[in-house]
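Margin note: ligand = L-tryptophanamide.
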Amino acid sequence: MNKKRVLSGIQATGKLTLGNYLGALNTWVKMQEEYECYYMIADLHTLTVRREAEELRKNTLNLIAMYIAAGLDPENNTIFIQSHIPAHSELSWILGCYTYMGELNRMTQFKDKSAKHADNINSGLFTYPVLMAADILIYNADYVPVGEDQRQHLELTRDIAERFNSIYGETFVIPEGYTKKEGARIMGLQNPEAKMSKSSTNPNDVIFLEDEPEVIMKKFKKAVTDSEGIVKYNPETKPGISNLMEIYSVITGKTKEEIEKEFEGQGYGFFKEAVGKAVVEKLKPVQEKYKELQENPEYLENIYRKGAEQARIIATKTIEDVKRKVGLVI
Ligand code: ATP
Ligand code: LTN
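Resulting structure:
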């Protein structure tokens, strides 16, 4: 049976958050049964913002450990590091010549990140989505599981692929985004109007997957709510409570209505504690496995070396096909 193919990645920019887990990793784990999956560490993308070299290397290894700790089976999935497959960068150059400045100018992530890093608006930040398109198209992925914030990049990827196909004939599979409604956009605990993000400056805004249970409980206790005192889902008027309900819903599998019923007549304090406990329980085995894996760098190296070998087979085929089509001598 021919399985559909999946590709996704996370930038090695630091400790993963509950947002990354519920919006991306958790979905990847579910997809591994049904699809042929390629999960990479997007290390080249991280260079768009200044990093310490040693820290980037450490983050990359830790991220591989976290992929596996979260439940990805390295025997059943191809886990690899983006920069180990130079064909991504080659394809990115070629696709950049089929992408318009106007299209890249519209990307909200570019606008956000250039506002945040006004002293370093480099061209990599601008062409970031082209490299992401190359990551996806080089494997002819059918599905790309990402959080809501990446959907615009995915639309652009489809446009680039369609443009290329219409000039040179069927070359790329047109990928589809795969975003679960639940968990696709987890908001900050202190500022529920903005997404929970690794690079947030307020640590109480973010649950890190490595946070100790007491820290997690404390952060939920401090989470911003409202003065109504009723556990009810309405992201417009009750963003804080609705976000906590979202988190609780993805973790327990309960619907919003079931949660409203469960906490009817209870105060926010009680509800926050329940959410905190559910998160702590869910993360416990992940944290234990993560610690164990961090102590075994050889095992991790084996995985990403083997992953690169597997990924290279498909990437090489695609890049050669593309080069031939555009007229490069190979
Ligand atoms: P940074 O703060 O460095 O921009 P980030 O936390 O946004 O990082 P990324 O590496 O950009 O994380 O994203 C990795 C994956 O996690 C992507 O699929 C993204 O859509 C998803 N993701 C990130 N933040 C959230 C969130 N708050 N809710 C749901 N999904 C998220
Ligand atoms: N831009 C993505 C990371 C990423 C990615 C990809 C995701 C790089 N290449 C290819 C899916 C497919 C982000 O999450 N910030």
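Residues 7-11, 42, 45, 132, 135-136, 144, 146, 150 surround L-tryptophanamide (ligand 2) (CB under 6 Å).
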